[in-house]
Amino acid sequence: MTVEIVGFQGEPGEWDTKIDESPHGTIFHRWDWLKITERHTGTRLYPMMGMKDGICIGLYPLFFQKNGLFNMVYSPPPRTALFYLGPVLMDTENQKQDKKETIYVEFQNSINEFIEKQLKGDYILISLSPTLLDPRPFSWSGYMVEPHYDYVADLTCGADVLLQMLDKKQRQNLNRAKKRGFTVELGGRKEFDAILDLMDIRYAQQAKIVTASRDYFSDLYNAFQNELKIFVAKSEGEIMTGSIDFQYKHVHYSWIGSPKPKIPISPSPNDLVMWESVQHAIDQGCTAYVTMSAAGNKRLHSYYAAKFNPALKIRFSAKKTSLLAGMLENGYTGIVKPLRGKVGQILRR
Q: How confident is the model at residue 297, as a pLDDT?
């Protein structure tokens, strides 16, 4: 019997329990985060569930949006500061590898059929959870698979060992920042809003637009303030920069923030923010520190988070488009987007 796809009809708590129990579940998969995303993106959430022999074998949140002539299917939607979502398979630790792969392939094939026949998707973009490291079922069904990278530091060795992993200059910068009177504090709603304000300023300086709305972030704060960790660097009581992080399943995630201060400062207070958040994560019993989407694909690019000697971890996204949707996307990325960038450069002069 193949995997049957049905819409989830249970209570939100039931969904969250399955997400928490799955090795592939993330905070982004939790019910409140999904519903907030739906409300602020003009999409419709399809919380799908895979059933095999009467047993739930996985969950799969899909977001649908009609965009002109095209039916768009996302997991997650763009412009939401969500780096991944996609399928969540139930814990199959006691199953043999061939059984795991069979269920996974059947699940994805059934979802593909739902997207094709029910949603009639012209453009499908799925970003997989970092723990779901097998993108082959997508490749086998015609998706284009692309790698992405996060930096992950092992915290189990303790703060003293991690500090010694930093090169001499980085340790000196941390000491210099403290001598200059920089302090890092754990904040709440006021500090959360202040970081978003600084991000707005930084984006404006770069002629960019913050695409996720302030109301979206506000609702996320209200729903997840127990999981969110707000760090701010201060000088003489003024917030210079900060980071909005969260903790989930004993892992600390550096999520958004770390804008450059309004006035250039050396050493950067962002170094101190990150180091203090690492120490906080250790004190909270976290086993890993993830700097989300901090490592890109561009060759010879220097990535700030690499200073803290983390491991490089891969994850995947998968995309499938109709011929026309693909042609229009290529036109946008190859012509329109570069042109907008040049206009932005002219405006900044």
A: 55
State pTM to two decimals.
Answer: 0.90
Fold type of domain 156-286:
Aminopeptidase (3.40.630)
Query: DSSP readout, 115-135?
Result: IIIII--SEEEEEB-TT----
Residue/partner pairs of 9-16 with CB below 8 Å, 24 or more apart:
15/47, 15/59
| Pairing assessment for the beta strands 44-52 and 55-67 based on DSSP bridges | antiparallel
Per-residue b/e over 52-77, b at no fewer than 16 CB within 10 Å? Answer: beeeebbbbbbbbbeeeebbbbbbbb
Closest to 318 measured CA to CA, from 152, 148, 150, 151: 148
Say if residue 91's pLDDT is above 80: no
CATH 3.40.630.30 applies to domain 4-147+316-332: yes
Angle ∠(56,60,62) on CA atoms, nearest 5: 150
Long-range contacts of 133-140 (CB under 8 A, 24+ apart): 133/314, 133/315, 133/316, 134/101, 134/104, 135/316, 135/318, 137/104, 137/105, 137/108, 137/109, 138/108, 138/316, 138/318, 139/318, 140/105
pLDDT tens-digit series, residues 46-84: 999 999 999 999 999 999 999 888 999 999 999 999 999
